[in-house]
């Protein structure tokens, strides 16, 4: 898999990256997706939230976290006092990977490690431009992409760790889509909020320090 590196314009800011990503052919995911879905938010954001990949609604609308999982994330951010307008949200891969059921329904498929690695130059470019103080990883794919393949959400969620190769720290938690699939949604949501509160308190301490 060739990877996205040759498609990422060097030294580009977010507008230039957002335009260039639509021409990316670094892996085969672009073939079936409606469009590439780049990150959204301010270049001056102190916090970056990284998920796995765009979902069905994100693929259709061209923006990250605008579907049911995004609404779950928004609810939790409000609860811990984080303004979504003050964060930058993105995904490890920029195209939606899916299978089709009978009819028109598109079912999410987890991107492979090779696909995540191929798309990594886009995420690195976003982190370079935004230069956040804290990165919140949502789900195992994002956490292992940024914190290493040995990272385990089940054991290390909610812990503040250093972000390799960046002058920032990181916190990992479950992806909000996992809450939507859970039998005990309320319990999982409470745990999710507790992890986000760690991120919010860490960000506040970095600002005061």
UniProtKB/TrEMBL annotation:
The keyword Thylakoid does not apply. Residues 38-197 form the Uracil-DNA glycosylase-like domain. Keywords: 4Fe-4S, DNA damage, DNA repair, Hydrolase, Iron, Iron-sulfur, Metal-binding. Pfam families: UDG. It comes from the Bacteria. Belongs to the uracil-DNA glycosylase (UDG) superfamily. Type 4 (UDGa) family. This is Type-4 uracil-DNA glycosylase.
